[in-house]
Amino acid sequence: MFIARQPIFNTEIEVIGYELLYRSGNQSQEYDGVSSEESTASVIIGLFEAGLDNIIEDKYAFINFDGNFIHTDALELIEPDRLIVEMLEDVEVDDLLTDRLKEVKHKGYRIALDDFRESYNDYPLTEYADIIKYDLLATPLTTIAIDVDKALLNKKTILAEKVETEEDFLMAKEMGFQLFQGYFFCKPHIAGKSFDKSASKGQYIRIIAELKKDEPSFEMLSEIVEQDVTLAYRFLRVVSFRKGSDLVYSIKSALTYMGLNEIERWINILMLQDLGKSKPKELMKISLIRSSFSESLAEHLGLNGLAHEASLMGLLSVLDAMLDQSMEEALDGIALPDSILAALIDHEGILLPVYELQIAYETADWSTVDAISKQFSIDADQLFEEYMIALEWANDVVGKIA
């Protein structure tokens, strides 16, 4: 099976929950005979098998329920403070359903209406809803202003889905939307840059350039790191986590302990964290998930010798959004293999299938996931397992460098 998560933000672009999206392993975009009831059951089972905290951390899980599955007691496997019950847009409304929603709310669960396209006053489920989700592609902001005002007057939380640009985010926020879902935060905002990060980037470029030499010098690496007290402190924290109770006597001894490959991995992670200080933490987390996931995908695609490059490609795939520059500008001056540059700048080359597959999985573009998986004979369960490993690793890294 495939389970992906999509972040849901508040007005401060802080993650408050994740919508969990599911398809069985042999499906594309459509259900192909698999009911939404089975889909929801699989998501809940997958949550417990993979670990609830690993998938949604300490946030809410937004999960779709149809008119049949809402009547089972499966939803009560998840505590009310962790679950948002999303009612699908095509649910048949009758007394049995409304009675069940009353019961669900009485137990403390919050209810969201997914892909809401109805008239706010006329739709019978609005009175039971805590959250109303508007798909901005299906219901543009200019067409729903009156209903949005009505929902706000009735103390509803309104959520904008498919928010793909910062302009859409700002407009929805101005209208009174409190929650937002979409990949607007993963795109660079070229106009109106608030500050220049070139100094920080230059420091890291010096380290990366040294690492790319035929014979990198631990002496030179330690000298560069020691020139930035903040970087030195954060680097020592990382090493301390790895060494446990063993003392770290110097930057040079720490670098020697880690080895060149591990130094490069962590320097790139710290660079992204430093350059992305003004960006949502979720952007950093996505880069880490992509890094781990891309490394495993390269191996499954038969690119074992390029696993390291694939990992770095995934890690740097958000650098344009971090720096509010084009990807070509963001990568300028960083010594990278041609395979990474081709994938991230020109969208071509040997690593392109890795890039396309991890993006498709992340955005729940199951038809593309299915096509690439079949082309390279990748099992659905393998993808799910590797994605869960990537989530766990990303959570662990963020905890260490926060």
What does this protein look like?
The chain is of the alpha/beta class and 402 residues long. It folds into three domains: 2-186, TIM Barrel (Alpha-Beta Barrel); 198-275, no CATH class; 287-402, no CATH class. 51% of the residues lie in helices and 11% in strands. It contains 18 helices and eight strands. Strand 4, helix 3 (95-106) and strand 5 (110-113) form a beta-alpha-beta unit. It is elongated, with a radius of gyration of 23 Å.
Describe the protein's topology.
Elements: E1 2-9, E2 15-23, H1 36-50, H2 52-56, E3 60-65, E4 83-87, H3 95-106, E5 110-113, E6 131-135, H4 145-153, E7 157-161, H5 166-175, E8 179-181, H6 198-211, H7 218-226, H8 229-243, H9 251-258, H10 260-275, H11 281-300, H12 307-316, H13 319-323, H14 327-330, H15 338-346, H16 352-362, H17 366-375, H18 380-401
Parallel strand pairs: 2-3, 3-4, 4-5, 5-6, 6-7, 7-8
Antiparallel strand pairs: 1-2, 1-8
Q: Kindly state the percentage of residues in helix.
A: 40-55%
DSSP strand count = 8
- Strand coverage percent: 5-15%
State the low-pLDDT regions, or none: 26-33
How large, in whole angstroms, is the Cα Rg?
Answer: 23 Å
Strand and helix order: EEHHEEHEEHEHEHHHHHHHHHHHHH
CATH class identity of the largest domain: Alpha Beta
Number of helices: 18
Average pLDDT number: 86
The description of the largest β-sheet is: 8 strands, mixed, barrel
Count of separate structural domains: 3
Net shape: elongated
**CATH architecture identity of the largest domain:** Alpha-Beta Barrel
InterPro entries: dGMP_Pdiesterase_EAL/HD-GYP, EAL_dom, EAL_sf, HDOD, RNase_Y/CdgJ
Domain EAL: 1-202
Organism: Acetobacterium fimetarium
Domain HDOD: 197-382
